[in-house]
Design goal:
mainly alpha; 6 helices; 10% strand
């Protein structure tokens, strides 16, 4: 596929406005992270009676999940991103208040929600929103 500067399709406009160095750096760091997780977590997984590449597979799945999210946010303009961040901060604040009453305790800290077999901390989702 050949994308030229004169092409005005949405894909071409995205390609010429995206920071390709940053996108390449993301993929390089993701590959490096996969190698590090593969090297360091095999013994831990075996100690927890999990398959030896359990954490590596999870890392790859979360990395693959992040690619469409990155592409989605790279297509938006500044105004749309601000609206999403304000809405996200509002939702995260409500979740942080809800966690006081309905959160799950892990290692003594009541900071977790379990939804469909996945656990997450609302504060971790809120951190990038506050940066923007």
């Amino acid at each position: 596929m050949n994308i030229t500067r004169s092409d005005r399709s949405s894909l071409a406009l995205w390609w010429w406005t995206i920071d390709r160095y940053l996108l390449t750096s993301f993929f390089i760091l993701m590959m490096f992270g996969i190698l590090l997780v593969m090297a360091s977590s095999q013994h831990l997984a075996e100690n927890l009676n999990l398959p030896s590449h359990h954490f590596t597979i999870r890392h790859i799945l979360y990395g693959l999940l992040s690619v469409p999210i990155i592409i989605f946010f790279s297509v938006l303009n500044e105004r749309q991103i601000k609206i999403i961040c304000i809405l996200g901060i509002t939702i995260i604040t409500l979740l942080l208040l809800l966690i006081l009453f309905d959160g799950e305790k892990i290692k003594g800290a009541q900071r977790w929600f379990f939804i469909g077999g996945l656990s997450f901390q609302p504060s971790e989702i809120g951190k990038p929103l506050y940066v923007v």
